[in-house]
Amino acid sequence: MPRFAANLTMMYNEHAFLERFGAAARDGFKAVEFLFPYEFPPAEIKAQLVDNGLKQVLFNAPPGDWTGGERGLASLPGREDEFRRSIEIALDYAAALGNDRLHVMAGLMETPHAVQHSRGQHRDVYIKNLALAASMAQSARVTIVIEPINTRDMPGYFLNRQDEAQAICEEIGLPNLQVQFDCYHCQIVEGDLAVKLRRDMKRRNAGIGHIQIAGVPYRNEPDTGEVNYPYLFDLIDSLGYGGWIGCEYRPRAGTSDGLGWLTPYRHASRAS
């Protein structure tokens, strides 16, 4: 039975951020994820996790100037020192929150007011930075995950395809570097989700370190749109995936009112 984590960046926006933990717990979630925790001291977030009996399963490393349009640092030439500092900060938060999955965003190929580089230059920096991040995370028992993101929602993002992400992880060859399989992004770029899940879940090297879901094409609840999620949940179970599935979607209205799709799986989502 799949286990679901509420994404507190997308869900429960009816509440202030620190109030979302309690709202998710009241709806039966036992795990949460979100994009960035850095506006809050780790102790404040940890208190919410403890008070509400929640496990933190994923967040992102600092992405550069997010409000200025940046979407990660890992592939950006000339930003290597800043990237290393971002991983140090993220690992400090991971240690405080008990989190063992860290998403490292690649970044955009073109950014305003920046010198443009070739894809090859971006890839070279990406490989070196990911190897560094995974090495830094090993002693903390943290797995670094990289996520292909669709070109409609994030034009110019460096990493878009599952096979490329898997190849990069295999090239680096560190056991704590894996791919974050977001069904929403993969369906928009590639489709054929079941085949790709079967192919990548069983890889000896790399593999799938985290899964996320949302309805396609509008990124609402997973009971809307073109993806047959009950079928995929059964498949993911049959493939032996033991991790959490992040609910990274935008509720159509109130978050709690839209959780009817979760009813058959509530027992697993309440499991720790």
UniProtKB/TrEMBL annotation:
GO terms for biological process: glyoxylate metabolic process. Residues 22-263 form the Xylose isomerase-like TIM barrel domain. GO terms for molecular function: hydroxypyruvate isomerase activity. InterPro entries: HPT_OtnI_isomerases (IPR053398), HyI-like (IPR026040), Sugar_Epim/Isomerase (IPR050417), Xyl_isomerase-like_sf (IPR036237), Xyl_isomerase-like_TIM-brl (IPR013022). Keywords: Isomerase, Pyruvate. The active site is at E147 (proton donor/acceptor), E248 (proton donor/acceptor). It holds the Pfam family AP_endonuc_2. Belongs to the hyi family. This is Hydroxypyruvate isomerase. It comes from Caballeronia sordidicola.
